[in-house]
Design brief:
The protein is an all-beta fold and about 120 residues long. It is built from no helices and eleven strands. Strands 2, 4, 5, 6, 9, 10 and 11 form a seven-stranded mixed beta sheet that branches. A four-stranded antiparallel beta sheet has the order 1-3-8-7, with no helix packed on it. The N and C termini lie far apart (about 40 Å). The model has no long low-confidence stretch (mean pLDDT about 95).
C-alpha cells in the first residue's frame, strides 16, 4: 500500500506564507505525477497544482504567481510553497499521487488533508 503524509498547514495572516509537504511511502515502482488539491466548506474540491515526473507543472489560475509546486524525487516528496496568502485560500489541502505500485498496477492515492486558514 501507498501512504501520503501531509504537514505544514496552519493559521496565517493575509499576505503570509506557508509551505506544505507531502511524503509518499510504501511500495512505489514509479511516481507518474503528484499534486495538491483543496476544498473549502460548501465548495467542490479543486486542483491547485500538479507536477509530473518530468518536472512539468500546472496551476489553477487563482494561485499562479503566488504558489510554487516542487518535488524531491529521491524522497518521494512534493511541496507547495504558498506566498501572498489570501483569505480565499482557506481550505483543506490534500496531497495526491499517481503511482505505479508495480510495473502494471497504477494507483491514485490521497493524503488525509491539512487545514490552511488565512485570516484577514
Amino acid at each position: 500500500q501507498v501512504q501520503l503524509v501531509e504537514s505544514g498547514g496552519g493559521l496565517v495572516q493575509a499576505g503570509g506564507s506557508l509551505r506544505l509537504s507531502c511524503a509518499a511511502s510504501g511500495i512505489i515502482f514509479r511516481v507518474n505525477a503528484m499534486g495538491w488539491y483543496r476544498q473549502a466548506p460548501g465548495k467542490q474540491r479543486e486542483l491547485v497544482a500538479t507536477i509530473t515526473s518530468a518536472g512539468s507543472t500546472n496551476y489553477v489560475d487563482s494561485v499562479k504567481g503566488r504558489f510554487t509546486i516542487s518535488r524531491d524525487s529521491a524522497k518521494n516528496t512534493v511541496y507547495l510553497q504558498m506566498n501572498s496568502l489570501k483569505p480565499d485560500d482557506t481550505a483543506v489541502y490534500y496531497c495526491n499521487a499517481d503511482v505505479y505500485t508495480v510495473i502494471a498496477v497504477r494507483r491514485d492515492c490521497w493524503g488525509q488533508g491539512t487545514q490552511v486558514t488565512v485570516s484577514s
